[in-house]
Amino acid sequence: MSTHELTVKVRKLKELKTFVEEVAAEITAIEDELKAEMAAQNVEEMTVDVFKLRYKAVTSNRFDSAAFKATHAELYAQYTKPTIYRRFSVA
Asked: What is the CA radius of gyration of the chain?
Protein backbone atom coordinates (compact mmCIF):
# COMPACT_ATOMS: atom_id res chain seq x y z
CA MET A 1 0.00 0.00 0.00
CA SER A 2 1.20 3.48 -0.75
CA THR A 3 1.58 6.18 1.91
CA HIS A 4 -1.49 7.93 0.54
CA GLU A 5 -3.58 4.73 0.76
CA LEU A 6 -2.40 4.13 4.32
CA THR A 7 -3.26 7.70 5.28
CA VAL A 8 -6.74 7.35 3.80
CA LYS A 9 -7.28 4.09 5.69
CA VAL A 10 -6.07 5.54 9.00
CA ARG A 11 -8.31 8.60 8.58
CA LYS A 12 -11.28 6.34 7.79
CA LEU A 13 -10.49 4.19 10.82
CA LYS A 14 -10.37 7.24 13.10
CA GLU A 15 -13.65 8.50 11.61
CA LEU A 16 -15.37 5.16 12.20
CA LYS A 17 -14.06 4.91 15.76
CA THR A 18 -15.44 8.38 16.48
CA PHE A 19 -18.78 7.31 15.00
CA VAL A 20 -18.81 4.18 17.18
CA GLU A 21 -18.11 6.29 20.29
CA GLU A 22 -20.96 8.65 19.40
CA VAL A 23 -23.37 5.76 18.84
CA ALA A 24 -22.27 4.12 22.11
CA ALA A 25 -22.94 7.40 23.94
CA GLU A 26 -26.39 7.64 22.36
CA ILE A 27 -27.16 4.04 23.32
CA THR A 28 -26.12 4.73 26.91
CA ALA A 29 -28.28 7.86 27.04
CA ILE A 30 -31.37 6.01 25.79
CA GLU A 31 -30.76 3.11 28.19
CA ASP A 32 -30.42 5.61 31.06
CA GLU A 33 -33.75 7.23 30.11
CA LEU A 34 -35.48 3.85 30.05
CA LYS A 35 -33.94 2.88 33.42
CA ALA A 36 -35.05 6.21 34.90
CA GLU A 37 -38.60 5.63 33.70
CA MET A 38 -38.61 2.16 35.20
CA ALA A 39 -37.30 3.58 38.48
CA ALA A 40 -39.99 6.29 38.40
CA GLN A 41 -42.64 3.58 37.96
CA ASN A 42 -40.88 1.48 40.63
CA VAL A 43 -40.76 -1.62 38.41
CA GLU A 44 -38.02 -4.06 37.50
CA GLU A 45 -39.82 -5.29 34.41
CA MET A 46 -42.18 -3.70 31.93
CA THR A 47 -43.63 -4.46 28.52
CA VAL A 48 -43.50 -1.81 25.83
CA ASP A 49 -45.21 -2.85 22.59
CA VAL A 50 -43.55 -6.17 21.72
CA PHE A 51 -40.51 -5.51 23.91
CA LYS A 52 -39.92 -6.64 27.48
CA LEU A 53 -37.60 -4.40 29.48
CA ARG A 54 -35.86 -5.73 32.57
CA TYR A 55 -33.66 -3.81 34.98
CA LYS A 56 -32.96 -6.12 37.88
CA ALA A 57 -30.22 -6.48 40.44
CA VAL A 58 -27.99 -9.45 39.69
CA THR A 59 -25.65 -11.01 42.22
CA SER A 60 -22.45 -12.61 41.02
CA ASN A 61 -19.48 -14.00 42.87
CA ARG A 62 -16.10 -12.96 41.57
CA PHE A 63 -12.67 -13.99 42.65
CA ASP A 64 -10.78 -11.16 44.35
CA SER A 65 -7.31 -11.77 42.93
CA ALA A 66 -5.85 -8.63 44.54
CA ALA A 67 -6.85 -9.77 48.04
CA PHE A 68 -5.68 -13.31 47.30
CA LYS A 69 -2.34 -12.01 46.05
CA ALA A 70 -1.94 -9.89 49.20
CA THR A 71 -2.60 -12.79 51.55
CA HIS A 72 -1.15 -15.69 49.52
CA ALA A 73 1.59 -14.16 47.38
CA GLU A 74 3.54 -17.40 46.84
CA LEU A 75 0.48 -19.40 45.85
CA TYR A 76 -0.66 -16.57 43.58
CA ALA A 77 2.75 -16.52 41.87
CA GLN A 78 2.62 -20.29 41.46
CA TYR A 79 -0.59 -20.10 39.44
CA THR A 80 0.02 -17.03 37.33
CA LYS A 81 1.66 -17.11 33.95
CA PRO A 82 2.72 -14.35 31.60
CA THR A 83 0.79 -13.88 28.41
CA ILE A 84 1.98 -12.13 25.30
CA TYR A 85 -0.28 -10.31 22.92
CA ARG A 86 -0.01 -7.57 20.36
CA ARG A 87 -1.83 -4.28 20.82
CA PHE A 88 -2.77 -2.14 17.84
CA SER A 89 -3.25 1.58 18.39
CA VAL A 90 -3.47 4.73 16.36
CA ALA A 91 -2.42 7.99 17.98
From this structure: 23
